[in-house]
Backbone:
């Protein structure tokens, strides 16, 4: 670009009347190696503007999504937890009614038969236990004779 | 709106926000904090971002206001240590020392301008926004912006000439 055009534009620039495109031309001119001697003083101004535009933000921007994720996660976790408990109870109730009741009958198929057999078994047990207890009564004799000897 | 979409949305102007903050605040760290602050504010508003027709302008306005607030809140503090770390992280360290020095001078001179002018210089000469966009960001009319910008540019020129011919004339 011719020198007088540059000077002209520079004057416009200092009046605040240049467009962005014209300012870019000025920047380009002043970043080129052959700047006229009497315009050298402006070189650093335009150089500075170009240099400043190179600066970058290096830090990460902390967006607060973590907190949100946690609440979300806790909601999901509690739903899963409740579902787990619910399904456990649901399933276990079903199985106690059906499966366990059947297995309590043991080898018998009919509940009445099983009942009779159980009574029989329990009566046998109590008879034997009572027989055992009868023999324990003798111990009372020992107790009495002991009391006779060791007077309290 | 999820995080990825949001990041895509802010990427084009994230650095502009950072640079404006750095223009106004003392250090890179403060500018980074300001940028994060502005972005988090935007993120929190993410559900009604669609209602703004120019999110970039909104972000820039928020940055401007946030930085001015910051400055006001610690006006009495260490503001005089301004700009001593301005060129530290610059990529163009291979430039001649002299050049770097005069670039730094420009930075210092701009730093001495009133904040309003600094904002205008940053938006126009560094970020190259159109006057129309600047008008939205700083809430001024275009003529006033042109006048103020012209004043700022002339001040920079004046100071540069003084600096360059210091001790000569």
Residues:
């Amino acid at each position: 670009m011719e020198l007088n055009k540059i000077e002209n534009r520079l004057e416009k620039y200092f009046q605040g009347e240049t467009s962005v495109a014209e300012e870019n031309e000025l920047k380009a001119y002043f970043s080129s190696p052959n700047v006229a001697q009497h315009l050298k003083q402006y070189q650093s101004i335009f150089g500075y503007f170009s240099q400043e535009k190179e600066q970058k933000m290096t830090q990460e921007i902390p967006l607060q999504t973590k907190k949100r994720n946690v609440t979300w996660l806790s909601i999901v976790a509690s739903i899963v937890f409740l579902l787990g408990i619910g399904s456990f109870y649901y399933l276990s109730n079903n199985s106690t009614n059906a499966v366990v009741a059947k297995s309590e009958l043991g080898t018998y198929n009919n509940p009445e038969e099983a009942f009779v057999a159980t009574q029989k078994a329990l009566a046998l047990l109590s008879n034997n236990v009572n027989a055992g207890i009868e023999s324990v009564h003798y111990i009372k004799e020992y107790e009495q004779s002991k009391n006779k000897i060791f007077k309290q | 709106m999820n995080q990825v979409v949001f990041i895509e949305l802010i990427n084009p102007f994230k650095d502009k926000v950072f640079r404006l903050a750095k223009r106004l605040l003392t250090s890179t760290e403060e500018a980074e904090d300001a940028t994060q602050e502005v972005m988090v504010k935007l993120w929190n508003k993410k559900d009604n971002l669609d209602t703004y027709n120019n999110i970039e302008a909104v972000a820039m306005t928020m940055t401007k206001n946030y930085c001015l607030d910051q400055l006001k809140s610690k006006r009495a503090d260490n503001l005089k240590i301004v700009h001593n770390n301005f060129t530290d992280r610059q990529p163009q360290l291979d430039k001649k020392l002299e050049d770097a020095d005069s670039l730094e001078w420009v930075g210092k001179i701009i730093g001495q301008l009133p904040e309003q002018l600094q904002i205008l210089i940053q938006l126009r000469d560094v970020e190259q926004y159109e006057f129309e966009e600047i008008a939205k960001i700083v809430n001024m009319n275009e003529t006033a912006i042109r006048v103020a910008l012209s004043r700022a540019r002339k001040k920079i020129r004046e100071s540069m000439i003084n600096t360059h011919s210091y001790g000569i004339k």
Notes: Helices of chain B lie at 3-24, 28-44, 55-73, 97-112, 115-126, 131-138, 142-164. The mean pLDDT of chain B is 82. Chain B touches chain A through 49 residues (CB under 8 Å). The first helix of chain B runs from residue 3 to 24.
